[in-house]
TrEMBL record:
It holds the Pfam family Acetyltransf_10. PANTHER family: AMINOALKYLPHOSPHONATE N-ACETYLTRANSFERASE-RELATED, AMINOALKYLPHOSPHONATE N-ACETYLTRANSFERASE-RELATED-RELATED. Residues 1-170 form the N-acetyltransferase domain. Keywords: Acyltransferase, Transferase. The keyword Acyltransferase applies. It comes from Hymenobacter armeniacus. This is GNAT family N-acetyltransferase. SUPFAM superfamilies: Acyl-CoA N-acyltransferases (Nat) (SSF55729).
Length: 172
């Protein structure tokens, strides 16, 4: 596995990956699907371009030896915190270390930007995903955030809330 930083030319394949990983029948092949919670897409190409344009932000990509996209993760460094979001791993390639590879890379991105804390939000009813992040050293802060109401990010089938998880970034 190798790490690359996304550019605008990567947007079409990133959109395909993220939507396959989160929504629709293809997402059900992996364990991180949200298809049972939300209808619609997870992200569109315009949204990805907007994310890439944010100062201090990057979309990190995990590629195989043939430059095939295995996964991606958004990292946005602001002050002492790096916000991590939209971890996406090809559904048929899950449980092979891609997620852990991207989490480490995103945390390193935060350290490179002088961040001391890594923050993410997870849908509160995603117990298996929360447990996964807790195994990676993240802890629930007790804080919550409302789920976005913009239908570009999906249409909830039930009321949803985001839990805030954080992890201190130590330097090796």
């Amino acid at each position: 596995m190798k790490l690359a930083t996304a550019t605008p030319s990567d947007v079409p394949r990133l959109a395909r990956l993220v939507n396959r990983a989160y929504r629709g029948d293809s997402s059900r092949q992996g364990w991180t699907t949200e298809a049972h919670l939300l209808d619609g897409q997870r992200i569109d190409e315009e949204g990805l371009r907007e994310m890439l344009a944010v100062p201090g932000a990057a979309i990190l990509m995990c590629l195989d030896e043939n430059d095939e996209l295995l996964g991606s993760f958004y990292a946005h460094a602001t002050g002492e915190k790096v916000y991590l979001g939209m971890l996406a791993v090809e559904p048929q390639g899950q449980a092979r270390g891609v997620g852990k590879f991207l989490i480490r890379a995103a945390e390193d991105y935060g350290r490179q930007h002088s961040c001391t804390v890594s923050k993410m939000t997870v849908i509160s009813v995603r117990a298996e995903l929360i447990a996964y992040y807790e195994r990676q050293g993240y802890r629930q802060t007790g804080a919550t955030e409302p789920f976005p109401t913009d239908p570009r990010f999906g249409i909830p089938r039930q009321p949803l809330t985001l839990l805030v998880l954080e992890k201190p970034l130590t330097y090796a």
